[in-house]
Specification:
Layout (H helix, E strand, L loop, with lengths): L1 H17 L4 E6 L9 H9 L9 H23 L10 H10 L6 E5 L2 H9 L9 E6 H9 L5 E2 L28 E4 L5 H5 L2 E5 L14 H4 L3 E4 L1
Parallel strand pairs: 4-5
Antiparallel strand pairs: 1-3, 2-6, 3-7, 5-6
Length: 226
């Protein structure tokens, strides 16, 4: 069983590399867990007891408003305790993620063994685990129409993506944000050791495998191994 999975991983990694991309992995100790960010899960918990689900525009507005509130509260209270790498717009977001606060980020790794470890860590014998494999640059080709990872910095120009659109400090756009694959800021040693990678979730509350009309799955850019 494990041998078959490793063969699949090697085949996927080779296929992605031939296109100039790198495979990202994410381990789930429960196969039914969804590919959604902590911020989206946080909003879903807050609104789970409502008699009627929020209309789509209101749900998106609450997502953006709560992201802004959480960011402002964190930077106001934690700024004196942050290291130099964390004292920037995106550095603070990665610090929030590191300390378990809700953000749009979803953790991945470039190391299959690391993802497999998390899939098995604290797994109950009755639970089935899963490892997701993502073509990171393929995601951006579907989402943005261009390959390559998105750098999280302040450089804005015609040839780059304006990442301020996803950041809670800035005025949000009028249109919906899509999920993208980003180059992380390595703000702590654990990220380096785990070869961390991240997707930055957009406004959709669908799990990643259901976004973009399920194109990521149908085109083999996102594969679930179990």
């Amino acid at each position: 069983m494990l041998k078959d999975i490793i063969t699949q991983v090697e085949d996927l990694d080779s296929a992605f590399r031939r296109k100039g991309s790198v495979a990202w992995y994410r381990g789930h100790r429960k196969i039914e867990w969804r590919l959604t960010s902590t911020l989206h899960r946080y909003i879903e918990r807050l609104t789970s007891n409502l008699e009627k689900p929020l209309p789509r525009p209101e749900q998106r507005d609450q997502l953006r408003d709560d992201a802004k509130t959480l960011y402002r509260q964190f930077t106001r209270e934690a700024w004196p305790l942050l290291g130099p790498a964390e004292r920037s717009d995106w550095g603070a977001i990665f610090a929030m993620q590191h300390y378990g606060l809700p953000t749009r980020l979803l953790d991945w790794t470039e190391n299959f063994a690391c993802a497999l470890f998390f899939a098995q860590q604290r797994r109950q014998p009755e639970d089935a685990a899963a490892v997701w494999v993502l073509d990171s640059e393929g995601l951006n080709e579907v989402s943005l129409g261009k390959r390559g990872l998105v750098a999280l910095d302040d450089a804005v120009g015609a040839s780059v993506v304006d990442v301020r659109r996803w950041h809670p400090r800035w005025v949000p756009p009028k249109d919906d944000l899509s999920t993208i694959a980003v180059s992380p800021l390595f703000t702590n040693p654990r990220m380096t050791a785990q070869r961390s990678a991240f997707t930055l979730n957009g406004d959709s509350f669908l799990p990643l495998d259901e976004q973009f009309e399920r194109r990521l799955v149908s085109e083999g850019l996102l594969v679930k191994l179990s």
